[in-house]
Design goal:
Elements (H helix, E strand, L loop, with lengths): L9 E4 L2 H12 L2 E8 L2 E9 L6 E7 L24 E4 L3 H10 L3 E8 L5 E6 L5 E5 L8
Parallel strand pairs: 1-4, 5-8
Antiparallel strand pairs: 2-3, 3-4, 6-7, 7-8
Length: 142
């Protein structure tokens, strides 16, 4: 088994090449693999963190051509309502918040200490996907 998470969220983006750059700049992801045909991203893997604290997202272009794409929906098709979101554990929530806001992330829940522990905030990325970033680590006592 690999040292990464066995649960990997997948997303679709209208401008996936731009989203990849933005997710790396704003949220601190790193490219692991990107398979594209021109401006259409067929499959991309972005990683966050290091070692056993490493996670991954996968993404592609929001088209309805493939079997998987036909099952996905973009936030602009739901009135920005989400049925799922992504939670990312970060070491320094305040530094992450500063970088994300500098890059234009839309803050939907301001950064604050949480009653269950840790510090975090919620935001939308450049195409409206909902994210939570915080220092609370549910794996710590699991």
């Amino acid at each position: 088994m690999s040292p990464g998470s066995t649960v990997i969220p997948t997303l679709v983006y209208r401008d996936a090449p731009k989203a990849i750059d933005w997710l790396c700049d704003a949220f601190g992801f790193q490219r692991n693999a990107v398979y594209a045909d021109g401006d259409v991203v067929l499959h991309a893997q972005l990683v966050h963190g290091t070692g056993t604290g490493r996670g991954m997202i996968m993404l592609g272009s929001a088209n309805k051509d493939g079997d998987w794409s036909k099952l996905m929906i973009h936030p602009d098709e739901t009135g920005q309502r989400a049925t799922q979101s992504i939670c990312v554990i970060v070491v320094d929530a305040d530094a992450h918040y500063a970088q994300a806001t500098k890059c234009g992330a839309q803050i939907v829940i301001d950064i604050a200490d949480q009653p269950y522990g840790g510090r975090g905030y919620a935001c939308r990325d450049l195409e409206g996907h909902l994210w939570w970033f915080g220092t609370y680590d549910p794996w710590k006592d699991a």
